[in-house]
Every structure is written in structure tokens, then in C-alpha cells.
Amino acid sequence: xxxxxxxxxxxxxLRERILSGQLKPGQPFPTNKELINEFGVYVSxxxxxxxxxxxxxxxxxxxxxxxxxxxxxxLERSVRRGGFLTEFxxxxxxxxxxxxxxxxxxxLPAAVLKEMDPPVLRYLTRQWxxxxxxxxxxxxxxxxxxLKELKSLISDPGTDLYRAMESLGMKPAICEESLxxxxxxxxxxxxxxxxxxxxxxxxxxxxxxxxxxxLCFLTNRADCYEFLYRFxxxxxxxxxxxx
Length: 243
Known about the structure:
Blueprint (H helix, E strand, L loop, with lengths): L6 H14 L11 H8 L3 H13 L3 E3 L7 E3 L4 E3 L5 H5 L3 E11 L7 H4 L6 E10 L2 E11 L4 H8 L6 H7 L6 E10 L2 H7 L4 E10 L5 E10 L3 E3 L16
Parallel strand pairs: 3-10
Antiparallel strand pairs: 1-2, 4-5, 5-6, 6-9, 7-8, 8-9
Helix pairs in contact: 1-3
């Protein structure tokens, strides 16, 4: 009887198939049953190999275990032109994890209290694109916006937040974002199903008069997004001469 391959060896074979293009970006990744039949090993060996590829970002999954898995898709550029539903249209879906008006400052993070006083509407969602969870959005909206009316509007997960604000007379005009990449926490891995690296974005949205309409903390999968920002290049005057 031939000696069974280790999970590390199986992971190396599958990794090479992905990197060589034999398994193409976005195509379904083989199921555990298919891999067990191919390599003649136990399910635990296969799962360890697959988990390693998920941690490396080479395989993307829509849930724990043997749920829908695909080969790492090509990175999609986020044009950041508005809300998630506006950006990705019918490919996008929001899952509301929490939607409530917070009235006690003790229940708000310090970073939120620096920007706004309660009551504050907290709008926590998981963002799905092509039925893959790609981001966690934790938004806080101050009372400058009619909170009860806004809460009612966005209780429908198919409603775009910024369009809902605009319908209430609070039109978003300016968006500022800061980004930092790093390893995901155990909680983030659970919510986004094992992704090892995330891009954390702090977003501030203002109206044309400079009033803060939203403070949002976004946690994005680094294996699903490419971010692009454009800005005017400022050249110093001639009094700062090259030497």
C-alpha cells in the first residue's frame, strides 16, 4: 500500500495548481470528497490542507467547513464611489448584524465619542459580494440625521445608507478615508471565514457644510479588494530649489 501524502504535501500540490493557472481564479475549488478520492487520505488531512490555502488567501470560502469555496478571484478594484450596494449593484448583499439607537455613552467606543455625542445610531452589517463575505461595516450616525426615520429606512437591507440619508434631507458630500492593513483577529476570521489579512478603513462622511454624517469602521478582506485613490499632485513653488 502506498504511503499517504501529508496535508503539507497536498497543500503544496494544490497551491501549485492555483499559481500555475490549472485551477483558474474564480472557479469552484474541489470539494473535500473530490480531494479525498483523488489523494486517498482522511478528511482531516484534506481539511488541514484546504485550511492552509484559505489562510494564504489562495482559496476563498463563503462559510465554515465544506461550504461554497472558490479559487482566489482576481482582485477587484474598489472605486469607492459611494455605498456598497451602489458600488456593486446586484452582486452585493447586506446582512444586518445590529441596528439600534445607542443612548448611553458607556456603550460607545472611545473613538466614536471623540466625534459625536449620543444618541447615536449604530448600523453593523456584513457585506457579501457574489455570496462571499468581503467586509464588516460598523457605522455610527449622529443625531444631526433624523435617527428614528433613518433606522426605519435602512432596516430593509436592500436600502443604500447614503440614499436613505439624502431622502431625509442630509446629502453626503465629502468622504475621508484612512487605511491600514494587518493580520485579522480571531473574531474577524470568524465573521469573514478565515481570511488572514484585512484592510481596516476609517471612513468619515460629511455634508457640504462640513457636518459629520457618519463615522464608519470597515474591515475588508485583503484577498478580495484592490484600492485606488487619486489626488492632485502639488508642486512647490520655485523658492524651494533643488540643490
